[in-house]
Amino acid sequence: MRILKDGCRLxxxxxxxxxxxxxxxxxxxxxxxxxxxxxxxSVNDYTHGSSRxxxxxxxxxxxxxxxxxxxxRINGFDYRLRSGTGVFIPPGAVxxxxxxxxxxxxxxxxxxxxDLQRRFIDPPLETASGEPPRxxxxxxxxxxxxxxxxxxxxxxxxxxxxxxxxTQFVGWIPPxxxxxxxxxxxxxxxxxxxxxxxxxxxQMSASEFGPGSSIYLPNxxxxxxxxxxxxxxxxxxxxxxxxxxxxAYEDD
Length: 252
Prior knowledge:
Blueprint: E1 2-3, E2 9-11, E3 17-21, E4 24-30, E5 41-46, E6 49-50, E7 53-55, E8 60-67, E9 69-74, E10 77-82, E11 85-89, E12 94-99, E13 105-112, E14 119-121, E15 136-138, E16 145-147, E17 151-155, E18 167-173, E19 176-177, E20 181-182, E21 186-193, E22 196-200, E23 207-209, E24 214-217, E25 223-227, E26 233-240, E27 249-250
Antiparallel strand pairs: 1-2, 2-24, 3-4, 4-5, 5-13, 6-12, 7-12, 7-14, 8-11, 8-13, 9-10, 9-12, 11-15, 16-17, 17-18, 18-26, 19-25, 20-27, 21-24, 21-26, 22-23, 22-25
């Protein structure tokens, strides 16, 4: 982990505290212990089989399937998972993950706020009946929205799924460098594809990042992400409070 100016953090693919429970290995990257205020980010790998059920009594949690396929059981309802799926876990909901494939199912999770009462639930949930609430969305279902002249994003978990505190999105950064800007939210970023450079106003040294890197940006920090090319950077972002990734403010 690199501690940067104004509370920003840059994490490598191996950073974070690792814990294991059955077929589930979790690496907590962004949290209070590593300098965040309310938002977290974890990298979760599931081998074949079903995980233990877990509940966050107080936090909204959002999940993103980076690789693999399977199912997420939320309060007894089963939801299909595949790469590019976003999942909303409401506060108090009990959920578990099943990996139905031979490879690793990787899920990037974020909670807001960090829930110190998070706990495992035994025995596992039984199947529920009736119509399941809409709690998942695939990025292909969302339209592309422009952010600035050349950058685009797609909402994933947002207010239409009932999420109130956080917004989850995927974004693409083409080759080039944007102006320095700031946001009015606390943000966690996970780099899905591509390599780039994080610039912070007033910090002379730049910080390079690549696939599997994580970035923490506090509210109001002037920054920009540069893509030296030739391929686009693809990233997963989660921020609090909820809003639009396109709402950026340049330094006057």
